[in-house]
Amino acid sequence: xxxxxxxxxxxxxxxxxxxxxxxxxRTPIREALQKLAASGLVEQIPRRGVFVREPGxxxxxxxxxxxxxxxxxxxxxxxxRITEPSLDALREVNGRCRTAAESSDADGYYRENERFHQLxxxxxENGYLQEQATRLQKRLKPFRRMQLRVRGRLEQSMAEHEIxxxxxxxxxxxxxxxxLRDHVAVQGEKFHxxxxxxxxxx
Length: 202
Fold this sequence. Notes:
The protein is mainly alpha-helical. Helix content is about 75%, strand content about 5%.
């Protein structure tokens, strides 16, 4: 609900109301809020409560820069270590991305795109790097998702996926690393749309 904007930046998350809403006790709600705080999606303020926290423009760009470098590192290692079954799994997920893109289904595309990147993290065979990339991917989810609604972005993303897959199959570490970095980085029009999004929600 935070990711979809049902809870806006600064909204207070009340344990009692959430427990009633989902028909559970306060214990799992409290545990969920602690995990959200660890991810950075909410902020726990002593004696005040838990509040949704959305990053400002500078922090957002910094996170995307870090994400681009993490993805690049995962891609470089994956190019050396990926197995044929992992490549087949990537091709299968990419096929579902293509189906979603062809039907202009941005939400469906994002779900498969998320899995596409997670398979690359796993293929790097570095547990710590995979954990950090996955954590930041979750933190940036609402913003990465929003980018896909920019005109032409689905088609551009698909073209980049094809380059990444081809480079992985060839074991071309630098091509994978560069394409993944550019694929994730916030530049130009992407940044403009992110800022508009933040202003619209402020």
